[in-house]
Amino acid sequence: xxxxxxxxxxxxxxxxxxxxxxxxxxxxxxxxxxxxxxxxxxxxxxxxxxxxxxxxxxxxxxxxxxxxxxxxxxxxxxxxxxxxxxxxxxxxxxxxxxxxxxxxxxxxxxxxxxxxxxxxxxxxxxxxxxxxxxxxxxxxxxxxxxxxxxxxxxxxxxxxxxxxxxxxxxxxxxxxxxxxxxxxxxxxxxxxxxxxxxxxxxxxxxxxxxxxxxxxxxxxxxxxxxxxxxxxxxxxxxxxxxxxxxxxxxxxxxxxxxxxxxxxxxxxxxxxxxxxxxxxxxxxxxxxxxxxxxxxxxxxxxxxxxxxxxxxxxxxxxxxxxxxxxxxxxxxxxxxxxxxxxxxxxxxxxxxxxxxx
Length: 357
Description:
- One of its GO terms (cellular component) is plasma membrane.
- It is found in: Cell membrane.
- By secondary structure, the chain is mainly alpha-helical.
- The protein has two domains: about 300 residues, Na+/H+ antiporter like fold, CATH 1.20.1530; about 35 residues, no CATH class.
- The protein contains 19 helices and no strands.
- α15 runs antiparallel to α17.
- The longest helix has about 40 residues.
């Protein structure tokens, strides 16, 4: 698809409208800050310490976001014979950390919320080092092209580094003002939706109504297949780790949901517009399809999976009531997924001391 790549790159001329272009850059930057602040507000230091002692969530985030997804993006770019501009946009999206959409979806499928938040936060921190590395490794195939020779890995690292401040501020807000943190998490989820809608409208205004028609069918196909394959890979990965069903659903959503705000910000703020052109739209298309497919996942679960989940949780409660001592080893295993909170652990220990007395 070289001709396709040419027509897409040509879309960069439309970014000549300086005021709209600057407005778009500000919106992308602000949207990313609010998202990262919301992510920080969702992290509790106690949970973080627990996960660092038994880092299953950290390991799954590493394997899902920086092994499975970049490789998937690379293979799809090769299979569909994308031109270098489209390939870089797809690779960039594949190398991004997890997005906070997965946290919301995990709640809707009765997933493990602690695991979801820890995976999103740890993949975002790991991205500081691993995202530029993955981009460098997988872009070698297109090394002789201008877009890869000018790949701004330093600027990508700088953009990633700038996200640490709002994340750190969010963690501090959660520690000092938990109620304000809860509100901020809700605001960040709504801002994600609003920002994506405004980005679609502004980009459509700048690049013209023919933009979507100029994007090759292969790029649409990847935007549909990539999140779907990501969800399947995540579920498979959690199954290999012998995780319980609610954790499998969580890891599945975490792996397929990418941080599209970060991807959009990197494409918009670090690449010359005449170089990246219409491929700036790819993360927005990915966001559209990852949301639709996650919504379908939730719908299928609500219709067919919820009864099975209730039976599982009932069974677990009955087992715990019969004899906690017998299941002590299993409880330790469960806490590695972040499912047993400190309060629950303490209350169980109190019950144990009472029974022994």
